[in-house]
Amino acid sequence: MIYEILLPLPIQKTFYYEVSRFSKGPKTIPTGTLVEVEFKNKVIVGIVVNLIKSTSLKKPLKQINKVLNPFFFNTEIIESINFISQYSCNKASMVLKMFLSNFPSRTLKIRYEPRKVNKKLEQKELALNSNQREVVNKIKAIPFKKFKVILLEGVTGSGKTRVYMHKVIEVINQGYQCLILVPEIILTTQWVEDIKNDFDIDPTVYHSSIRKKEREEIWKKTNLSQEKLIIGTRSALFLPFTKLGLIVIDEEHDSSYKQEEQLIINARDFSIVRAKNSSCLIILSSATPSLESSHNVKLKKYEYFKLYKRVNNVELPKFRIIDMKKENNIISNELENSIRKNIDSNYQTLIFINKRGYSPFIICNKCGHSRVCNKCNTSLALHNHPKSKSYLLCHHCNYREIFENSCQSCKQKNTFIFPGLGIEKIAEIISKKFPFAKKCVLSSDIVNSTSKFQNAVSDIVSNKINIIIGTQLISKGHNFPSLKTVGIVNIDNLMNGFDFRSYEKTFQQIVQVGGRAGRKNLQGEVFIQTLQPDHPVIKLCTEKSNEYFVDWELLSRNENNQPPFSNYTSLIFSSRKEKLVVDFSNKIYEKINEKFENIEIFGPAPTILYKKNSFFRYRILIKMKKNLILQNRVKNFCIKIKCPNNLKLYIDVDPINFV
């Protein structure tokens, strides 16, 4: 018998091997078996994808070195790899590489431990309001052994986790495995502790930052069905589950689920693929669902449940729009007065700005020279946190240099000015206005480890902090009992972005961060500081209902034939040689234009970030109708594009980032 084997190599093909007649192993190796083979003098782990009787190859076949029992990829994994590789224009071998990335190394002792029958988890009597009980009962009535997508929408603070965890316990008690995906693991430590306390279950936490040996151990136990509940980031989706019964995508709208390096893939969408091929239930949970998910509810593709009430029937915060055209300061008078009242009453205030650093760029007020990254065509941002020496940083390639207030162009000193707003500038303003208040600045540049972040969160929960100043690191998933007021600064920057999702991202950001206010017997308040107080997105944020925004935005998307009513595929050509990128992208444009009708082609044109890490980048954006046959034809063409040396092509299906 000849075995067709898929290897985790950047090659769009499979390879053929045979088993020695003198082998002591099984006579026939089934599809899905992991095997060790030799390829170009290297030993590689691959997977058997097919059994055939003969090939047209004239060369003698190499033999399989070893069958790696008891490890095995079931049909679901193979089907999911094949589907997502075709849909996302990735090589199946590179998707397989993700599944094998934490396969136990030779240094790890592999022992087969038969799965122990665990004692059933007893469901605790948790306090639920009438709305939660109703949704828990409706989800309980849905069998988990059949594929179905549920969109669980709930206002911020409505206890969505408690609702879906009832289904998690049910699935585990039936002997199946559960996966809960979260956008960022740094945000979840306290949340995981709450799950342990509320449900008497100790989930396994999995992400790329834990030790390699620990990841290998989790991989092994998952494949042997010994891990029952895993909570992890998108990398956890590539664990080799054998008995999936439920997948939950928490904060399903979050753009962090889109992987944009190496393998360009949307983990939320791939989760749905895995659930379908596992014939199991998947729950998408969010306070601000993505437009795609809301649209699928309207098309009756997804089941839909909503939590309208907060836990303990606490009222949602009141939103107030501040017209910054009438203000003279960066912090409005109304927000400043609220902060003072909160300090006097021992309540907390959160100032939110989604911009790292002190200033997004610096410029000489004598000659107009601005400091730009040598590797990227973007300005260097000034970072000026009091605990470190001021430095300039590229937020794309991480190039860094010490800041010297001396212009390289006109040779004048102390001439740089710092326009724009970053979190560190806001922190400086707050420190001057409230010098005796206890402050906490939460940004990935400052709080750059899990321990630092958890210490800061602990201080906030204990009400040791008066004023929290944070980026989106603090905008979701947290329950701060003493937080009364949220001030949202510089939101116009996001709302007037360059991609068609700008309004959706702005709405989600405002609702999510505003939802941190007034969680525990407090009437919260949210101040939206804007130069566009009459903008529909700003006004819709005050309606306390996603439905109005979803209907308004879907109408606009439909009129402009934008996703989810059409599909985009982005081709990004990248090379250190500028002329090569320009010439080759134009050549591919001509071929696409000749070959396909009923599609729109934008470009080729420089990407917004034209030069990134010394690579020049051009983009072709293909817009297609919702036509599966046409989409597959275009994707098959894109996959077969052969690039010259020194040029890389990145294919991004359903792009989220247009930089």
Walk me through what this model shows.
- Helix 1 crosses helix 2, helix 1 packs antiparallel against helix 7 and helix 3 packs parallel to helix 4.
- A hairpin with a 5-residue loop joins strand 12 and strand 13.
- It contains 17 helices and 30 strands.
- About 1% of the residues have low confidence.
- The strands form 7 sheets. Strands 9-10-8-11-14-7-15 form a 7-stranded parallel sheet, with helices on both faces. A 6-stranded mixed sheet has the order 5-2-1-4-3-6.
- Helices cover 29% and strands 24% of the residues.
- With 659 residues, it is of the alpha/beta class.
Characteristic key phrases:
six-stranded mixed beta sheet, 24% strand, 659 residues, seven-stranded parallel beta sheet, 17 helices, single chain
- 3D shape: globular
Oligomer: single chain
Provide the structure class. alpha/beta
From the N-terminal CA to the C-terminal CA, the straight-line distance is: 50 Å
**Rg on CA atoms, Å:** 27 Å
Number of helices: 17
> Helical proportion?
25-40%
Within the largest sheet, what's the order of strands? 9-10-8-11-14-7-15
Fraction of residues in β-strands: 15-25%
Could you write a compact summary of the structure shown?
By secondary structure, the chain is of the alpha/beta class.
